[in-house]
Amino acid sequence: MIVGIDLGTTNSAIACWKDGEPALIPNAQGDVLTPSAVSFTENGELLVGLAARERQSTDPDRTATVFKRYMGTDRRITLGKKRYRPEELSSLVLASLKADAEAYLGEEVSEAVITVPAYFNDKQRRATRVAGELAGLTVKRLINEPTAAALSFGIHERELEEPFLVFDLGGGTFDVSLVEMFDGIIEVRASAGDNQLGGEDFNEVLVALMRKSFDLGEDPDQPDEALSKLLREAAERARRALTNANEVEMRVVWNGAEHTRALREADFAEAAEPLIQRLRDPVLRSLRDSSLRASELAEIVLVGGSTRMPLVRKTVTKMFGRFPNATIDPDHAIALGAAVRAGFLERQADLSEVRLTDVCPFSLGVGVAEYDHRGGMRDGIFSPIIERNTVIPASRVETYSTMQDNQEKIRLEIYQGEARDVVDNVRIGQLEVPVPKGRAHEVAVDVRFTYDTSGLLEVDANVPGTDIARQALIYDKSDDELTTNLESRRKQLAKLKVHPRDQAANAAALARAKRCYEGQLGPMRDQVSQIIGAFETVLASQEERQIDEARERLIEQLDQIEGENYL
Ligand code: ADP
Ligand code: MG
Which of 441, 459, 443, 439 is nearest to 451 (CA)? Predict the structure, then answer.
């Protein structure tokens, strides 16, 4: 069985191909979304998912979230006394999902299709593969998240070759992609986005509103961290409640006093206007990059938990002048699409129906000199050869000429990026080409860039009419570190003591109660303390039925204090 996995920044999900359709697999708590959070308990036990996320505020030093942002970088994350690479933490999430699938399917799961953002560069992709391998999974394919989303909405079952626009607003990132199926090949034609825009930013807006209307007695110069967390959580609850109601209540209990404020959809819309504005730009850019008009889109599909917000749906509807397709839950679409892809792999006969191609996520080019309008020469201007969103493998050639009489060589500085000034781009290599003597502008060099999915950039330079040719193969060396000692690292990670799966719900409830305790003071704090004590006593009894009842009771009491918990 090949599973499909959405390894998300905020939440992850796993699905499989079953009875001719994709199906989500629940985790040990029965949820189909597993927060991408990892935490170590005081005893060194590993918690993954909701219990880990609840510990984010009570045990920040032993808990990690949003590590997907650092995939493919040299960033290390310290948990307790140990430092982890981002792909190692991702592997712990993957291993947990794998265990959930094995428990659910009753068989070993060793192969997976994993999704990655379309803009992930090669190193980030390799890091994702490594994460899979560290979790004991053979990664059969990495596919682009928007491609997976389009598959879950059935792009491969369409007759017409019309593009889908995938609008993905998650916890902290916003991605817009144009996906097209042509001649049996699915292609991401353009991707654009804002990697600092998501549900969290909308929470910030509500936190600001609450600070304005609640008399919390806080010293603005010394913001209280516990209070900030409390407000953030109240914001998340209110924002979610607003999905099903026109008016909700924002509520916190702080210093024994209850503070509430009504929040209407219109207030929220007004306060969030600057964020709403930022949703437009990437949409326009992706249309422009692919030379498409909004009217040519076959579907606009909503993906990512934050597109559940009616405010976002209305904005999208206005932007395109029609309703987006929301037939599939936005936070399930990517995992379901990965399972569709896994299904194709399993039924090898159908495989040729869908091939997935890729795009180059950034522009590649060389630095050149130019004359400015006053005739002076300016160095260090970027001249793109392969532009971002070009379908790869790609090969493009550009011709450059000398700037001075009797110049002896042309030095090609090779860059990756989008900025006009090369200093703002990433320098990835260089190549020197000797040239025959001649007048300025009359000696030319053809420079060919060839880029493929392996992430190798081949640069071929030749001087037409001569046999002068130079070649460079550019490859990111820091990459080797990513794949060294894989086997021993996998063994190290496999040795971690994992908190028992059948205890996941208890761990999550307890972690939530402890978090709630930290946010309270005075009598309310005592009350929370007592209910934690009561639950711990029952837990120690090891009587399963009683524990289940006590956990339900605990959750009910917590819901009363802080409102229903969310996933
Ligand atoms: P990611 O792709 O970042 O891993 P998701 O697609 O799971 O994440 O989206 C997570 C975000 O979705 C969170 O910020 C959460 O607040 C938001 N979200 C989930 N459900 C709702 C809802 N009902 N209303 C508003 N926002 C929601
Ligand atoms: Mg996502």
Answer: 459
Domains observed in the chain: 2-198+274-359 (3.30.420.40), 364-474 (2.60.34.10), 498-562 (no CATH)
Q: Which residues partner with 142 through β-bridges?
A: 114
Cα of 256 vs its chain's centroid, Å: 38
Q: In this structure, are residues 12 and 48 in contact, taking their beta carbons and an 8 Å threshold?
A: no
pLDDT > 70? residue 351: no
Catalytic-residue membership of 21: no
* SS3 of residue 14 by DSSP: strand
Half-sphere exposure of 187 (CA within 13 A, CB side): 19
* 488 contact partners, CB below 8 Å, separation of at least 6: none
199 touches ligand 1 (CB under 6 Å): yes
> Could you tell me if the CB of 240 is within 6 A of ligand 1?
yes
Separation of alpha carbons 21 and 7, rounded Å: 20
Is the CB–ligand 1 distance for residue 331 below 6 Å? yes
The Cα 542–Cα 546 span in angstroms is: 8
What per-residue confidence (pLDDT) applies to 349? 44
The number of the ligand nearest the C-alpha atom of 148 reads: 2
Q: How far does the centroid of ligand 1 lie from the alpha carbon of residue 6, in Å?
A: 14
Instruction: Tell me the per-residue pLDDT of 33-84, one tens digit each, with 9 for 90 and over.
Output: 999 999 999 999 999 999 999 999 899 999 999 999 999 887 899 999 999 9
Question: Which position among 6, 175, 200, 233 bears the catalytic label?
Answer: 6
Catalytic residue among 31, 54, 59, 68, which? 68
Residues 457-512 pLDDT 10s: 999 999 999 999 999 998 765 566 788 889 999 999 999 999 999 999 999 999 99
Measure the CA–CA gap between 328 and 322, rounded to whole angstroms: 17
If one residue of 6, 9, 10 were mutated to test the ligand 1 pocket, choosing by the most ligand atoms within 8 A of its CB, it would be: 10
305 ligand 1 Cβ < 6 A: yes
198 lines ligand 1 (CB under 6 A): yes
DSSP-derived 3-state class of residue 126: helix
Q: How far is the CA of 32 from the centre of ligand 2 (A)?
A: 14
Is 19 assigned a catalytic role? no
Look at the pTM and tell me if it is higher than 0.85: no
The 10 Å Cβ neighbour count of residue 65 is: 22
Section 209-213 average pLDDT = 95
pLDDT tens digit string along 177-203?
999 887 777 888 888 888 889 999 999
